[in-house]
Design brief:
The chain is mostly helical. It is built from 19 helices and six strands.
Length: 444
Amino acid sequence: MFKSSKIISNRLKYVNLVSNVARYGSDKVQICDLKSFEEIPGPRSYPIIGTLHKYAPFIGFSGDYDVEKLDQNAWLNYRRYGSLVRETPGVNVLHVYDPEDIETVFRQDHRFPARRSHIAMYHYRMNKPDVYKTGGLLSTYAQNGEEWWRLRSTFQKNFTSPKSVKSHIESTEIVIREFINWIKERNVSHNEDFLPYLNRWNLEYHFPVIGIVAFNERFRSFSPEEQDPTSRSSRTIDAAFGSNSGIMKLDKGFMWKIFETPVYKRLADSQTYLEKWQLFNYLPIFYRVSKDILYNRIHYFEQPENGDVSLLGSFLKQPNVDLKDVIGVMVDILMAAIDTVNINNAYSIMHTAYSTSFALYHIGRNPEVQQKMFEEICTLLPTKDTNITADILSKATYVRACIKESLRLNPVSVGIGRLTQKDFVLRGYLIPKGVSMKRIGYKH
């Protein structure tokens, strides 16, 4: 009886949505055929725990999903339930697999798209009002809409322009050459796990871009001193993994909101370490930004003809920008150097190393592709001393195609998320406001 009443209520709500649905083929949707969100196929949901039993075994439950293996979870969901899969791990989640359905979801986007992500990180920031004004660009659980757009539109233009990217090709090439020379000197064994070295390379690779662009600083993680397990870069990588590894688990869970769970404690402990170690000479890494040090840096930028064109300097010249905004965005940039390739996607340093590893793997497994890449590179770089330029990169069409194909075969992210901001209809189901939509890119 309750279920029937809910369906009838949803059908009445649908009458108010006809004008919106008409844009997406309402002539094919019959009001009498409208189904509720609860009727979408998916794992069985129980009171309180919802579908969390699929991710962690409880008494009487198998826990046949693994929170560490999102691609396998996606494949199981698709095989068992189809192209739309409903879950309720504390909140309503809808996994979308079909490209046409994904397009429909994107068309529902408000002027300010919303998503549910980095909840624990948002909680962490909001508990430090002396440092942060907002959740920043990464933590978007309670920070969406106009405030998020204000931050993005104000700051992002300074570091995403093609001109900015081109201006740092030279420094990036220097790091890559250092990495290649380091491999030669290290005599890495054919049987040795190469991923830790790629992690370190990605740390060093992104910090020339982030460090030089933002702070005019180098991390030098391949120096003999920084190779030591107790060094700054080694411990930073370890702490970054300790922080990043809990993000997805904490986004799915809720117990950490009640008491400090082991996963949240690891996240907090890792961030505590990152707060105490200064990544740069004048700005501590991640979350405890020293305002006194930053104020000194601000005074430096106020000096005429200081010759520094870093992002920090450009941000401080922005009108109507609060110092806490600058602090938050600079911390986001630091986190992006370890946690993401750009601050709008969840590509962690381990995922960047993952991408590099699979690109090298696919190239190594396909000798004909390797030969064709080699020929293109030899044409563009006729001598070993030829420097890479923006023009040369633009002509490396085959290399770029190989990278894209590798990412297609082994995508680094489970998908793109959205939080529905209004009711809409998808495949005859009424999707209510507030559902966390996950666009899935599982491995074929």
